[in-house]
Amino acid sequence: MGFSGHQARKRFGQHWLRDASVLASIIEAAELQPEDRVLEVGPGRGVLTERLLATDAAVVQAIELDRDLVAGLTERFSTDPRFHLHQGDVLEAPLVLPDGMAATKVVANIPYNITGPLLERLIGRLDRPVDPPYQRLVLLVQKEVAERIRARPGQSCFSALSVRMQLLADCRSVCPVPPRCFQPPPKVQSEVIALDPYPAEKRLDLARARQVESLLKQAFLSRRKMLRNTLAGVAEPERLQTVAASAGISLQQRPQEISPQAWVALAKGLNQGD
Question: N or C: which end of the chain has fewer CB within 10 A?
Fold first, then answer.
């Protein structure tokens, strides 16, 4: 019964968060209200689940892939009518609560091997954002990924992911999470981040999103090269120079030096009349 004899499984990316201060920081960052409906990804043995159920949140829906943890989670939380559990793969399972409605917030200790596709599932892409968006996502991720998401132009870790995520959501760091905060400890540093996806009126329209995405793919293929080389084919040289200058961009710069809004301005300038 319970979790007796269950060992963390490498293939599921299982590392049990056990640090009380990190757990408290996650709950504080989520700012859960009585009307909130929470989706928890990968509850494991329920340490964070217990904290979520101690708040005023209306519902906590957990999705757990490991069948052997389901019985223990059910036993531990079945007396709380706000708790619901779905056994399955979060990349494939319906992300709705038992009443068919969506969650308002997501709390997740993300398995690092599915971070990319899970971010896309929870937030979407520039040209296909999740709609309606969640109000907030509080995610425990690998520090390297967190740094790329919240990086600023000019930093070595600034990337196409930085641009995409910052055009889709307000991104901030909550706290660092060293390996000793887990059992077993992972071989990498981790970080809790909070993402507040923008409402529809603050997102790029579909055409502009596609234009920006196209520029990012071309420019970041050779991130060490200057834009005059990586973007050479997108317009005649003189026009490219003029449009870039209007966007506040020098073609002597490299992709990681250009802010998200400057990429939007460049895409708009290159597609005047759209």
Answer: N
Tokens matching residue 147: 């740094």
CA distance 41 to 167: 24
CA separation, residue 95 to residues 34, 45, 130, 148, 170 (Å): 20, 21, 11, 26, 22
Residues forming beta bridges with residue 16, ordered by sequence position: 183
Q: Could you tell me how many residues make up the chain? A: 274
Biggest alpha carbon–alpha carbon distance for the chain:
72
**Inter-axis angle of helices 260-270 and 237-246, nearest 10:** 140
Amino acid at 134: Y
Please check whether residue 97 is in contact with residue 61, taking contact to mean a CB–CB distance below 8 angstroms. yes
Q: Which two tokens stand for residue 270?
A: 């290159």
CB-count exposure of residue 138 (10 Å: 0-12, 13-18, 19+): buried
Decide if 109 contacts 140 (C-beta within 8 A): yes
> Whole-angstrom Cα distance, residue 58 to residue 117?
28
What's the pLDDT band for 1 if we cut at 50, 70, 90?
very low
Terminal CA-CA length for the chain: 62
Q: Are the beta carbons of 136 and 170 closer than 8 angstroms? A: no
Q: Look-up: residue for tokens 């989706």?
A: 39
| CA-based nearest residue to 213, from 128, 131, 154 | 128
Query: pLDDT tens for residues 177-231?
Result: 999 999 889 899 999 999 999 999 999 999 999 999 999 999 999 888 999 999 9
At 223, is the secondary structure helix, strand, or coil?
coil
User: What's at 191, amino acid-wise?
Assistant: E
